[in-house]
Amino acid sequence: MFGLFGKKKEAKNANEIVSPVNGKCIALDDVKDDAFSQHMLGDGIAFEMTDDMVGSPTAGTITMVADTYHAFGIEAEGGFEVLVHVGLETVALKGKGMEPQCKVGDKVKIGAPLLKVDLEVMKENNIDLTIPVIFTNGDNFEITISGVGADVSRGESVVATY
């Protein structure tokens, strides 16, 4: 009985993508930005965040951190590439209200912190905190998207497999 306390959860499968935020999962088609909703950057999924932390949707290596901290690239095992874009029109803030929690070259686990967001700054600047997660080389993989419309938890809710 006592062996159950403090026991770690089993690791997620390497081919799973989880929610990077606490909030709600939405279809990429419903993002209020044509570059995302028309899949110009690739297929993916999106989220409406409800707190101030963005985590890694997969285990892998950080390959890109935008100078303005609004986007992160991650290469997962097997070469699957993910772009996490924090909010819409956030590039205009030039990093204001965003505190990166990682750097290029870092190895991250599922749910590892990528960015802390100052929600007050976002509100003051009328920023839409929709979080698109794009599978930038998804054409090379068979992807199944799930969870659209569901409430999700950062680092826990599986929303896609490849």
What does the model show?
- There is one protein chain.
- This protein is mostly beta strands and 162 residues long.
- The protein has one domain: Glucose Permease (Domain IIA) (Distorted Sandwich), CATH 2.70.70.
- It is 6% helix and 36% strand.
- The protein is built from two helices and 14 strands, in the order E-E-H-E-E-E-E-E-E-E-E-H-E-E-E-E.
- The chain has helices at 34-37, 119-124, and strands at residues 16-18, 23-27, 43-49, 53-55, 60-65, 71-76, 81-85, 98-100, 107-108, 113-117, 130-135, 144-145, 151-152, 158-161.
- The strands form three sheets. It has an eight-stranded antiparallel sheet, with no helix packed on it. A three-stranded antiparallel sheet has the order 1-14-12, with no helix packed on it.
- The longest helix has 6 residues, at 119-124.
- The radius of gyration is 15 Å and the shape is globular.
- The protein starts with 15 loop residues before the first strand and ends with a strand.
- The relative contact order is 0.28.
Labels describing this entry:
Glucose Permease (Domain IIA); disordered N terminus; mainly beta; 162 residues; 14 strands; 2 helices; 36% strand; eight-stranded antiparallel sheet; three-stranded antiparallel sheet; globular
Quick overview of this protein structure:
With 162 residues, the chain is mostly beta strands. The chain is built from 2 helices and 14 strands, in the order E-E-H-E-E-E-E-E-E-E-E-H-E-E-E-E.
